[in-house]
Structures are given as structure tokens and as C-alpha cells.
Design brief:
Layout (H helix, E strand, L loop, with lengths): L2 E5 L2 E3 L5 E8 L7 E7 L6 E6 L6 E3 L7 E6 L4 E6 L8 E8 L13 E2 L3 E5 L2
């Protein structure tokens, strides 16, 4: 079955950038919509971004619009989340998830497969 693994996280100063990758194995990621979610200590998981199977449609949480960009390279079986102008409130564990129907958007309960997650810490 499909397996997902995130990479590219770490520690960055406010205003800096990181590029998260979500690499798929076991299946063709082209067949799935992909979402990014994050969860900070003491807070509920929240949807960050979503990209359609074709890559022609995207959706973003209001607080990251204009700063984050979701994209995909189906030839590499990978989805990316480019995060610019990072803020301390972006600190969280980020997970990618895949949706067979390609319509889940930012609704976590609609996703079928999840990665383990990776830490992003924004601090000076």
C-alpha cells in the first residue's frame, strides 16, 4: 500500500524558509490528492494545505496564504511544501496525507494514508 515519508524539517529563524518533501512509495502518488497538516503541543491538528491529483488546484489555511506553496512532481512521486517567511506560530509537527478520492482538501478525516510527521521549529 501507499507509504509516505516527510523530510526537510528542522530549526529555522523567523523570516526564514524551509521546503518540506513528502515522498511516496508502494503506489503512484499521482493517483492521490495530498494534504499537509500540523500539530503543535497542546493544540489540535489543523489543515495547512492541499493539492489536487493533477496539481491544478490548491487550497491553503488563511494564516499561511502568500507564504506557503504546495506543489508536486509526479515524475519523482513527491509533493512539496515550500514555506517562506516562517513565523514562530508555524512551529509544529508537520504531516502529509494522501486521499484516494482527491477531494479531501483540509479535512483530516477524509485522508487514507499518513506519514510519520516531521518537526518544524521557528525560533531565534
Amino acid at each position: 500500500q501507499l507509504q509516505l515519508m516527510e523530510s526537510g524539517g528542522g530549526l529555522v529563524q523567523p523570516g526564514g524558509s524551509l521546503r518540506l518533501s513528502c515522498a511516496a512509495s508502494g503506489a503512484t502518488l499521482e493517483d492521490y490528492g495530498v494534504g499537509w497538516f500540523r500539530q503543535a503541543p497542546g493544540k489540535e491538528r489543523e489543515g495547512v494545505s492541499w493539492i489536487s491529483r493533477s496539481g491544478t488546484s490548491t487550497h491553503y489555511k488563511d494564516s499561511v496564504k502568500g507564504r506557503f506553496t504546495n506543489s508536486r512532481d509526479n515524475a519523482k512521486n513527491t509533493v512539496y511544501l515550500q514555506m517562506n517567511n516562517l513565523k514562530p506560530e508555524d512551529t509544529a509537527r508537520y504531516s502529509c496525507a494522501a486521499d484516494e478520492l482527491g477531494i479531501a482538501q483540509l479535512y483530516a478525516g477524509e485522508y487514507d494514508y499518513w506519514g510519520q510527521g516531521i518537526q518544524v521549529t521557528v525560533s531565534s
